[in-house]
Design goal:
heterodimer; A: 295 residues; mainly alpha; MetI-like fold; 2% strand; B: 268 residues; 2 domains
Chain lengths: 295, 268
């Protein structure tokens, strides 16, 4: 639909700009302010310039070391989440029933993990994976595989990755399914006449049609896994040691645990800039894909 | 046909994988702590409602649900109120900086709550809203208002423009047209949007926990504070968890065809 240009529409978006500015800009300004100052308590602040940033970006300092460790953990976690959830989500979407009550039943069952409070997702996996009282933990141990997520870093990683797959694969599957449903039957009939078989139908018809929604799925999964906090906080608390301490967990510890304002603020700014950069890349790719589709 | 049976296996195993952990939580909520800690039982051997009874009678537990419902309701109303006119503007017009505004809204949906926890704490303390439902409701606007704009925009764009024009010719002023004619046309969309704002506010922990201490403490915070206390009451924790799943489980059936849209920033 061609929309006419009308700058008076700004009056309609003004309330949104106001509330989001209140919720986003004021806090960010506070953070910028703290990030260039040092404090010795008593509300006395001293100019510190880019001191905190220098420390943060230098891996040999304590702050910098923690930041880069957490950053690599975040990237590894996001990578694992995408590599498992996207193919699995597509496979599930392809296997979903096409019509009848089964569609509704499957949709409702699949959406269930998406609607559970994030800390309860943590609780569910905490009790499911414990070797003493959990079905999963006990079963794995009984198979003779040593598994204890509170003591062994590998077990902890397996638990949080599995938890993320449990929590979010349905999102990818639901999006992929929405993409599949938009394919007219005529396409499949044409493919049958041409003698196309399973994989080539997937490659030439289904995948191109899913591209746009999959892009959104990848964006959402990357962003949300990159800022993950609640689920590992509940299950492992960042441990054992620091093995599952992600940036958000480290940041909250620094900001609200130790009230180390300068360090926390510098970390916030850098964290936010990374997110902003990635967001911009995705946005550009997304709007280009939209433009191609519409034009 | 081989492909079909393979697919059925994938789907079946996946659904089983989704259900097992949830079943474990539900089963645990009906067990006594003695049964939970003395050995693995696949189903409650001596089922009890004691955990649920405790939650419904102990104010420190049930007030958590009431507090959560309070800020979630306020947030839904705020998000809808702010987003409705903006979504109309996005769906009907192009205007100066609309693309930039869209990107800015997107960045707020993507911003990590951890970054905002400390400044929100100070901001809402400074304006005297700390430990009230308003603080959490306003804080959750950060991601719910952009989301509401996108979902509503999708629903509004499917309403033909001719309706706006006809109403204008019939002499309706814009506010009257918007409330009396336009909103009823997208009632479904408003319902779906309300559901998603409800959901995303209901599931969030970090901001809700940071902005409250006693009076407005939400159920998700009550649950994590029990975890850190010495001696775990697993059965009680499981029952509390099951009860947080109930609101979503009740409403999900009505929005089942719009789930993808809600999670995909309205872009499906």
């Amino acid at each position: 639909m061609q929309r006419p240009r009308n700058d008076r529409a700004w009056f309609l978006v003004l309330p949104v700009v106001g509330i989001v500015a209140f919720s986003a800009l004021i806090p960010l300004m506070t953070v910028v302010n703290y990030s260039v100052q040092d404090t010795f308590g008593n509300n006395q602040f001293f100019w510190n310039g880019i001191g905190w940033y220098k420390e943060l970006l230098d891996p040999t300092t304590d702050l910098g070391g923690r930041f880069f460790d957490a950053l690599w953990r975040n990237l590894l976690f996001s990578f694992l989440a995408l590599v498992i959830e996207v193919p699995l989500g597509i496979a599930v979407a392809l296997a979903m029933p096409r019509s009848g009550w089964k569609v509704s039943a499957t949709l409702v069952l699949m959406a269930m993990p998406l609607l559970i409070p994030w800390n309860v997702v943590g609780t569910i996996w905490q009790v499911f994976a414990r070797p003493d009282i959990g079905m999963f933990g006990a079963a794995v141990n009984r198979l003779g595989v040593p598994y204890n997520y509170t003591q062994d870093p590998l077990s902890a990683w397996v638990t949080i990755v599995l938890m993320d797959v449990w929590h979010w694969t349905s999102l990818v599957a639901l999006l992929a399914y929405a993409g599949l449903r938009s394919i007219p039957d005529a396409y499949y009939q044409a493919a049958r006449i041409d003698g196309a078989k399973g994989f080539s139908i997937f490659r030439n018809i289904q995948l191109p049609k899913m591209k746009r929604v999959l892009l959104i799925a990848v964006l959402l999964r990357f962003m949300d896994s990159f800022m993950i906090y609640t689920e590992p906080f509940v299950v492992t608390g960042g441990g054992p040691g620091n093995s599952t301490t992600f940036i958000s967990i480290d940041l909250v510890k620094t900001a609200l645990g130790q009230f180390d304002l300068g360090k926390a603020a510098a970390l916030s700014i850098v964290y936010n800039l990374i997110i902003l950069a990635i967001c911009w890349v995705f946005y550009t790719v997304m709007t280009r894909a939209d433009a191609r589709e519409n034009g | 046909m081989r492909g079909m049976t393979g697919g059925r296996w994938v789907l079946g195993l996946y659904l089983l994988f989704l259900l097992l952990p949830t079943y474990w939580l539900v089963a645990m909520s009906f067990k006594t702590n003695a049964e939970i800690t003395t050995g693995l039982t696949l189903w409650p051997h001596s089922p009890t409602l004691a955990n649920y009874k405790r939650i419904f009678t102990d104010a420190s537990w049930y007030s958590g649900y009431i507090n959560s419902l309070k800020f979630v309701t306020v947030n839904v109303l705020l998000s809808l109120g702010f987003a409705l006119p903006a979504a109309y503007a996005f769906s009907r017009y192009r205007f100066l900086g609309d693309k930039h505004l869209f990107f800015w809204l997107l960045t707020n949906r993507m911003a990590p709550p951890a970054v905002f926890a400390l400044p929100f704490f100070q901001l809402y303390s400074a304006v005297g809203l700390f430990d009230t439902p308003w603080a959490v409701a306003l804080a959750h606007c950060l991601f719910n208002v952009p989301l509401a704009v996108w979902i509503l925009e999708g629903f509004m764009s499917s309403v033909p423009k001719e309706i706006d024009e006809t109403a204008a010719l019939d002499g309706y002023s814009f506010p009257v047209f918007f409330v009396k004619i336009f909103c009823p046309l997208i009632a479904n969309g408003i319902g779906v949007t309300a559901f998603f704002c409800f959901m995303f506010s209901w599931v969030e922990l970090l901001l809700a926990r940071t902005l409250t201490t006693v009076d407005a403490k939400p159920i998700v915070a009550t649950m994590t504070r029990t975890v850190s206390a010495a001696g775990m009451d697993w059965g009680l924790l499981a029952a509390a968890g099951v009860l947080t799943i109930v609101p979503g489980a009740i409403v999900i059936w009505f929005v089942r065809n719009h789930i993808a849209r809600g999670f995909a920033l309205g872009r499906v």
